[in-house]
Write a structure and sequence with these properties.
Length: 178
Amino acid sequence: MLMPRQKTPPLSVQTLDHGGFDLSGENNKVGTLVCFYRGFHCPICAKYLAELERLAPKFAERGVGVVAISSDGEERARMMADKIEAKNLRIGFDLSLTKAREWGLFISTSRGKTSIGVEEPALFSEPGVFLVSPDQSLYFSTVQTMPFVRPIFSEMLGAIDFAIENNYPARGEYQGEV
């Protein structure tokens, strides 16, 4: 399990239009928001990523880089980017399921075609959102077993503002006896 204030696993993938993404090479003042999504087959992901695309400049204003990553190959990642009209959002692809597990993501098996008629991959990761500090330690995370009820990006912006203003530390770091 990933722990707040502890270093996250290495993470590097290719992106569609921004070259390679390597978390260790990020140089954002506040951190990097890593949004793992299910893939092109997921209509909820498309809606979610469209909102992140719209708000990516607001995250950048606060010193937060943003990347969305799935285990989809380049072709399906491009289809998602086109669907959400990505201009600001880095879209990473070919996330290995081994790496997804290192990040604590849940893995699902295909149920065939989705409600939009797109075939699910045989295996794919479920969603997760991570705010990683510049030193690569975990600041915030949420991992889901389902595509539904995800963190709201506009609320995250407010939380980031609060954290910056109040020098608020990452929480949930205690590992001692209870």
